[in-house]
């Protein structure tokens, strides 16, 4: 999926006045690219990611996913875009606690209304991809943090998205688990050609990407190859 | 139907939360059924009494008489009396087919309160056309007594047995057919006997049947003109007055039941709402991965309805048991001879409807909270 952001501003109204989070931000990500967005805490990295992921809207400017300006879509259309085209990986995994490993991975396919048998086959193959097919029927709270994040990766791939958005995917993991998770993400990007955007403050994590952007004072200031 | 699968898993896998909500619904429905079963029982008794009677006109003492229900659920006049010979004057009016003096007396027997009806046997079937004696015969003379089927069974008496009531010995000449709580728990004796027991020469009411019931208002006016100090009511007016009293009693119980229901409903809603806040990240996650608002709302509604219907089912069972306990307690306390609480299909239907209402109301507030919550705020919910 190709992404183009131009002239994007994001303001928040607070008691202290208007807080400018993003200012005249421009970004282009080609289909199949793998980029990392770095920056200090609170600089707006996640806000940027959520705007690309149709979870938030710019105050001004355009965010194009392929040729669709997400800011011009209503909430039900943005729901459809999220469901059909985007896979999310969050820092806190956000697996549903009442569902087991397999059911968590099945969820996006159930929401898409895919046939049960086909969905189960795909869910199991995704769990095999992240090395957790033997834990398919276990509750998610019996898994380690690294394993839970790998389940979240499998879930993010379940709807066959064109775009993977990862918000501090290793933030709650130890170094070893973090490295394993990033290897999985890189392998998916390389083998499946999915556009991948990772937000992180950790240079080691960012180094897995092909392009790294720094965000500070609301602007993407420099690009490092 | 992904929302149904999610709801079912959420309900069965989060047992503590489900149990808490379930208890709230159970208490609401159980209390509702138990309390209203008394109203149903009372209503049934009065309805039974009036459906058993066929009286065109009632003559009551006093210019403005207010109807009341006795502690035994029997409607009519108890305290004031009219001279017996007024009956002869009324009988002489053209169009009056039959006029019978009637008095009632509440007495205790074997620690049970019983309503005795003083009404002559030759007129009994005129005013109680459905009343049938299935064993023995009607009460003909002074010490004869016909007893209802339920009361006969409760007291363990049969035809030809002697029963002492208010210091007088009566012989059971007949047992009535089992029909309703009024008929099954009544005693009929001759009018003279009850007047002797009351040490009076008056009667509480005159019951009149006409040659042509359509002339009821005209003849009522005639009687009123002849005896200005009395009240004349048509059968409909009389039963309406008694039914109003039952309606008030029903309303009182309904109000008490509703208070209990509201408390339990609020507790149930509170549990649902608290659990919604606890699960805010879960809802945020669902929305983030593309679940529509409607799916999330339907999931919450389905969870609430599952718990409400299951809790309601258990509440109905509890209500039935509660009604039995309440019946035993009220009958013991007031020494009643007949069942007070009554569970009807209508009451169970109300219980199901109440469960559905609790389910829907319990889901609306959490559903709105979740639907209006910003997804990012929901994901970051602490």
**What separation lies between the terminal Cα atoms of chain A?**
21 Å
Give the ordered list of helices and strands of chain B.
HHEEEEHEEHEEHEEHEHEEHEHHHHH
Low-confidence stretches of chain B: none
Q: Main sheet of chain A: which strands, in order across?
A: 6-7-8-3-9-10
- At CATH's second level, what is the architecture of chain A? 3-Layer(aba) Sandwich
Number of strands of chain A: 10
Q: Whole-Å distance between the termini of chain B?
A: 30 Å
User: What is the chains' assembly state?
Assistant: heterodimer
Q: Order of SSEs of chain A, N→C?
A: EEEHEEHEHHHEHEHEE
What is the count of DSSP helices of chain A, taking H or I runs of 4+ residues? 7
Query: Biggest interface in this structure?
Result: A-B, 30 and 23 residues
Number of helices of chain B: 13
> How many domain modules of chain A?
1
Number of domains of chain B: 2
Secondary structural class of chain B: alpha+beta
Class by SSE composition of chain A: alpha/beta
The percent of residues in helical segments of chain B reads: 55-70%
- Please outline the major beta sheet of chain A: 6 strands, mixed
Shape, per Cα inertia axes of chain A: globular
Strand-residue fraction of chain B?
15-25%
Radius of gyration of chain A: 17 Å
Any key phrases for this structure?
A: 225 residues, Rossmann fold, B: 382 residues, alpha+beta, 14 strands
Your description of this structure?
The complex is a heterodimer of chains A (225) and B (382). With 225 residues, chain A is α/β, with parallel strands linked by helices. Chain A has a single domain (3-224), classed as P-loop containing nucleotide triphosphate hydrolases (Rossmann fold). Chain A is built from seven helices and ten strands. In chain A, strands 6-7-8-3-9-10 form a six-stranded mixed sheet, sandwiched between helices. Chain A has a four-stranded antiparallel sheet with strand order 2-1-4-5, with helices on one face. In chain A, β7, α6 (175-192) and β8 (195-200) form a beta-alpha-beta unit. The mean pLDDT of chain A is 92. With 382 residues, chain B is α+β, with helices and mostly antiparallel strands. Chain B contains 13 helices and 14 strands. Chain B has helices at residues 2-13, 15-52, 86-91, 121-127, 149-155, 181-184, 191-197, 216-226, 235-278, 280-288, 293-334, 345-372, 375-379; strands at residues 57-61, 68-69, 75-76, 82-83, 96-109, 112-118, 133-136, 144-147, 162-165, 168-176, 186-189, 202-203, 205-210, 230-234. Chain A binds chain B through residues 50, 53, 55-56, 75-76, 79-84, 86, 88, 90, 92, 94-99, 103, 107-108, 110-111, 113, 155, 159, and chain B through 2, 5-6, 9-10, 13-14, 281-282, 284-293, 295, 375-376, 379.
């Amino acid at each position: 999926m190709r992404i183009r952001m131009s002239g994007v501003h994001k303001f928040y109204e607070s008691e202290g006045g208007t807080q400018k989070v993003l200012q005249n931000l421009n970004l282009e990500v080609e289909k199949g690219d793998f980029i990392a967005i770095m920056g200090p805490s609170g600089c707006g990295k996640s806000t940027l990611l959520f705007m690309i992921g149709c979870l938030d809207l710019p105050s001004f400017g355009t965010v194009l996913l392929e040729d669709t300006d997400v800011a011009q879509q209503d909430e039900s259309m943005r729901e459809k875009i999220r469901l059909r085209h985007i896979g999310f990986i969050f820092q806190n995994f956000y697996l549903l606690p009442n569902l087991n490993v397999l059911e968590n991975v099945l969820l996006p396919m159930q929401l898409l209304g895919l046939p049960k048998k086909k969905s189960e086959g795909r869910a199991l193959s995704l769990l095999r991809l992240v090395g957790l097919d033997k834990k398919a029927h276990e509750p998610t709270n019996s898994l380690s943090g690294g394993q839970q994040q790998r389940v979240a990766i499998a879930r993010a791939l379940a709807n066959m998205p064109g775009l993977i958005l990862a918000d501090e995917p290793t933030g709650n993991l130890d170094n070893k688990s973090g490295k394993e998770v990033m290897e999985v993400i890189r392998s998916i990007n390389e083998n499946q050609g999915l556009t991948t955007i990772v937000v992180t403050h950790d240079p080691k994590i960012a180094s897995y990407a092909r392009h790294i952007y720094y965000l500070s004072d609301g602007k993407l200031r420099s690009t490092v190859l | 139907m992904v929302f149904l699968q999610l709801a079912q898993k959420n309900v069965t896998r989060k047992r503590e939360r489900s149990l808490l909500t379930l208890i709230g619904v159970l208490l609401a429905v159980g209390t509702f059924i138990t309390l209203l079963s008394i109203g149903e029982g009372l209503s049934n008794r009065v309805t039974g009494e009036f459906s058993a009677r066929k009286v065109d006109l009632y003559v009551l003492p006093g210019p403005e008489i207010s109807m009341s229900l006795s502690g035994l659920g029997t409607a009519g006049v108890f305290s004031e009396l009219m001279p017996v010979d007024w009956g002869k004057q009324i009988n002489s009016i053209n169009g009056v087919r039959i006029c019978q003096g009637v008095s009632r007396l509440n007495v205790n027997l074997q620690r049970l309160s019983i309503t005795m009806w003083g009404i002559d046997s030759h007129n009994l079937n005129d005013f109680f056309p459905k009343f049938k004696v299935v064993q023995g015969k009607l009460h003909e003379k002074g010490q004869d007594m016909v007893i209802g089927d339920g009361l006969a069974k409760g007291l363990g008496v049969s035809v030809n047995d002697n029963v002492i009531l208010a210091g007088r010995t009566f012989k059971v000449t007949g047992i009535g057919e089992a029909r309703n709580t009024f008929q099954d728990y009544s005693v009929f004796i001759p009018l003279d006997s009850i007047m002797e027991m009351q040490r009076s020469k008056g009667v509480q009411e005159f019951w009149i049947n006409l040659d042509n019931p359509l002339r009821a208002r005209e003849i009522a006016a005639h009687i009123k003109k002849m005896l200005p100090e009395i009240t004349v009511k048509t059968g409909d007016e009389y039963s309406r007055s008694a039914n109003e009293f039952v309606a008030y009693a029903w309303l009182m119980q309904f109000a008490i039941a509703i208070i209990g229901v509201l408390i339990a409903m609020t507790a149930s809603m509170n549990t649902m709402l608290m659990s919604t806040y606890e699960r805010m990240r879960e809802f945020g996650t669902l929305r983030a991965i593309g679940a529509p608002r409607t799916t999330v709302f339907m999931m919450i509604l389905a969870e609430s309805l599952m718990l409400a219907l299951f809790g309601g089912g258990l509440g109905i069972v509890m209500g039935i048991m509660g009604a039995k306990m309440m019946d035993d307690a009220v009958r013991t306390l007031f020494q009643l001879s007949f069942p007070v609480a009554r569970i009807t299909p209508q009451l169970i239907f109300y219980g199901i409807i109440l469960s559905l209402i609790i389910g829907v109301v319990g889901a609306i507030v959490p559903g709105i909270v979740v639907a209006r919550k910003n997804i990012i705020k929901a994901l970051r919910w602490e």
